[in-house]
Known about the structure:
The protein is α+β, with helices and mostly antiparallel strands. Helix content is 44%, strand content 26%. It has one domain (2-116, 165-192): Heat Shock Protein 90 (2-Layer Sandwich), CATH 3.30.565.
Amino acid sequence: MTQIFGEFNEILSPSQEYLILHFSPSSIPLKQRWRNNGLSADFMAYYFMTFFPGSEDEHHTNRKQAEIKGAVSYIANELLENAMKFNDETSLYPISISLHLHQEKLIFLTTNSIAREKVSNFQAYIQQLITSDTEELYISQLEKNAEDETCTVSGLGILTMINDYLATIGWKFETVEEQPQIITVTTMVQLTI
């Protein structure tokens, strides 16, 4: 079973520069690694800054580098948090995040397993994202979060990527193993640079 939602491009042109991080769920509990997401995201951001060298206009260069670094760090952190938070804890399938540099865009890919019983709710959320005005969804989610004192899931990460960073996002659900059944979800975020 393979299902595609949103702006997911299965055939990517090769990238000369990319970085892939894998997290094995068997070494330490993924929930304990959650605090390292920011460190991993910042590492990716600093690594990719080296591909945006300076120009004669130092102010413009510094501003552009800071924008790219901030975007990479934010998006990578959000993707890692979601992958770890919604990973199927019964599966030993690794979580991965990769970042690919193309001529005019950055492509982030995260893959994690997902519990079969959570797939339909997640796909319903994705359908809502695809078919709704994301700015209205963002405001609605802010209001819900403000009203709910016990709010444990903000629901703002993906919406921020779309609204603030003008990212395009897609998802691919795939059954990668039958016995026991393992379903993965790969999230693709494309960011124009």
